[in-house]
Amino acid sequence: MKLKRVLVASLALGVSSAWAADPMTTKEELREVFQQQGSAARGARLFEVCTTCHGREGNGKADDGIPVIAQQHLRVIAKQLVDYRHAERWDLQMENVAARHKLGPARDLADVAAYVSALQRAPTPGTGDGKHLAVGAQAYARDCASCHGTEGEGNGVTLVPRVAGQHYKYLLRQLHDTLEERRPNMPPPHAQLLTPYGVDELTGIADHLSRLTPSRHVLPRR
Predict the structure, then answer these.
(1) Helix, strand, or coil here: 168?
(2) pLDDT confidence band for 17 (50 / 70 / 90)
(3) Does the pLDDT of residue 73 top 80, yes or no?
(4) In the chain, what is the straight-line distance between the N-terminal and C-terminal CA atoms, in Å?
């Protein structure tokens, strides 16, 4: 399945087959990225390729479901880029950007992650209609907060993403993608926890998270 996904994405984007057959495993490249001392200054130049979708401040597009990436944990950003590069996460545009003809070696990924994690997040993300906030908050506290944090702050040490202050439409799409097996890098417990949820819980969780503002950042920036 993974090889098929890589080949399909490569053909669709005109990427050389030499890049599709990546000699490094996901874990090997991620380890290499983590060993780098990321340069935010260099990352700012590399980030130019990302601004069309994510904006110059990394705040995405609420109506188009493009995520806020500013102030995301550095290590989480790095992991997602590596996952896209190795078809462990699927999105043709992101796979193209993360490929080596756009972003090169491990140092490039570390530099972009350093830059993005230091950007300031906009205070007003896209939110839902507020109808199911109570049921969403209850479901999140019961099933999600133990990993993602009571304020949705995540944890950069354990590679748990910050989900607070994220655009509602993006969050809701990720919940559905997880349930419908379109997120291969999502740990299995997510789908198991989400399967019993109805529309009210799913929309409520996404809306609840979009309105949170964490009071802490779990992992000192380096």
Answers:
(1) helix
(2) very low
(3) yes
(4) 36
CB contact at 8 A, 197 and 139: yes
Mean pLDDT score of the chain: 89
Q: What is the rounded CA–CA span in Å between residue 64 and residue 67?
A: 9
Q: Work out the number of other CB atoms within 10 angstroms of the CB of residue 199.
A: 9
Nearest to 67 by CA among 84, 55, 76: 55
Q: Return the closest-CA partner of residue 202 out of 152, 154, 132.
A: 132
pTM listed for this prediction: 0.87
Domains of the chain with CATH codes: 2-118 (1.10.760.10), 133-210 (1.10.760.10)
Rounded distance between C-alpha atoms, residue 164 and residue 67, angstroms: 11
- pLDDT for 142 equals 97
